[in-house]
Specification:
CATH topology of the largest domain: hpI Integrase, Chain A
Number of strands: 5
Shape: globular
Distance between the termini: 64 Å
Order of helices and strands: HHHHHHHHEEEEEHHHHHH
Strand order of the largest sheet: 1-2-5
Low-confidence stretches: 7-17
Structural class: mainly alpha
CATH superfamily of the largest domain: Intergrase catalytic core
Number of domains: 3
Strand content: under 5%
Helix content: 40-55%
Largest sheet: 3 strands, antiparallel
CATH class of the largest domain: Mainly Alpha
Radius of gyration: 25 Å
CATH architecture of the largest domain: Orthogonal Bundle
Mean pLDDT: 85
């Protein structure tokens, strides 16, 4: 889908349609606000994956009745009414009813855009704060227990991906962050890894595309538990053996096909520090789509409840919060922009522990 906004519109003072508006005001229509102010100002700061889903969400909002409404006149009721209609209407491009994740992406985008309007003094409050999605859209994420995590890892221990699954569940890394790791980023003696880059979702065979992690805060150092360090040590030994075999086979090919008298190139005999941690036998990075497909197959084969690959991140962070880890520590580990983001995302986890909180409060009375 081609986005309908102009990346240079705000900087040049042009809005969609060629008009030259003043800076946004409460009377500015949502479409003009999104295309002429919010998207041009924010687009460059997002990772490529975020850019794609924000563009899709904005294009969808531009086709809604909300697009023509002044942002200062938007109210909870009419926003909820549109979301209720949208939830029951198939997309023209696919003929399918919107998935819960699509509805959440639409609401998150609208809320984020109007949060900026509040921050700049254009609005006094954000009408999306009180908006509730239709109940059918509010689906809880699958949260495996510690026992289920252990069962899954046991069922996949012979898989090439088993160490990757362990790292995702042990660190809360995003898929692209894990696939972007190089051996130079991993210090097994100090038991840490550094998140410096991500493999982007549009990577293809022989063309892995790297970019920065999702946000500036996503650049971080994460400590590893001893079991995950052991798993990475075994995986490194396996990769060293595979690399030596790959180089030996390549050298035999070069000898067989070289021009008489030609000098053979020198090949790296040791596993290069810049090689991807999670790679195929030939050293090429594992591809995001292949990793996700493999995860789905192995989850089905395990007999455990359905669980998305991205839910490994939620399982990790939820486990830490329920274990009583301070929220600022969890936020830093997740690479969130602030502890407020973590609190806002995982408030349901913390409220679920209210029984434990009540027991602690009972200590006041010595019962």
């Amino acid at each position: 889908m081609t986005s309908t906004y102009r990346p240079d519109a705000w900087a040049s003072g042009e809005a969609a349609g060629g008009a030259t508006p003043a800076l946004p005001a409460a009377s500015t229509a949502l479409a003009a606000y999104l295309t002429g102010f919010w998207m041009p100002r924010k687009h460059h700061s997002w990772a490529r994956g975020t850019q794609r889903y924000r563009e899709w969400a904005v294009d969808t909002l531009l086709r809604s009745p909300l697009a023509h409404r002044p942002i200062g006149d938007l109210r909870v009721f009419e926003i909820e009414r549109w979301f209720a209609e949208r939830a029951m209407t198939p997309f023209e491009s696919t003929g399918k009813i919107p998935a819960p994740s699509s509805m959440r992406a639409l609401l998150d985008t609208l809320k984020a855009s109007l949060n900026d309007a509040v921050r700049y003094g254009i609005l006094t409050t954000n009408p999306c704060i009180g908006v509730e999605l239709p109940r059918s859209m509010e689906v809880r994420r699958a949260m495996w227990t510690a026992e289920q995590v252990q069962l899954f890892l046991a069922s996949t221990e012979d898989s090439r991906y088993s160490t990757l699954w362990r790292v995702l569940l042990a660190t809360g890394l995003r898929r692209g962050e894990a696939l972007g790791l190089q051996w130079v980023d991993v210090d097994l003696d100090r038991r840490i890894l550094e998140v410096r880059r991500a493999v982007l979702a549009d990577s293809r065979k022989d063309n892995s595309v790297y970019g920065p992690p999702k946000t500036r805060r996503s650049l971080r150092t994460i400590s590893l538990d001893s079991g995950t360090v052991d798993a990475l040590q075994r995986w490194r030994r396996r990769r060293e053996t595979e690399h030596a075999a790959f180089v030996a086979a390549l050298e035999r090919q070069l000898v067989a096909f070289r021009t008489p008298g030609a000098r053979l190139p020198e090949l790296p005999q040791e596993l290069p520090a810049e090689s991807p941690v999670f790679a195929a036998e030939d050293g090429q990075p594992m591809l995001p789509a292949t990793v996700s497909d493999t995860w789905r197959r192995q989850v089905r084969a395990s007999g455990l409840p359905p669980c998305r690959l991205h839910d490994t991140r939620h399982i990790h962070l939820t486990h830490l919060l329920r274990a009583g880890e301070p929220i600022q520590n969890v936020s830093a580990r997740a690479g969130h922009g602030s502890p407020f983001t973590t609190l806002n995302t995982y408030a349901h986890v913390m409220s679920a522990d209210d029984e434990r909180t009540a027991a602690r409060a009972g200590g006041l009375f010595g019962d």
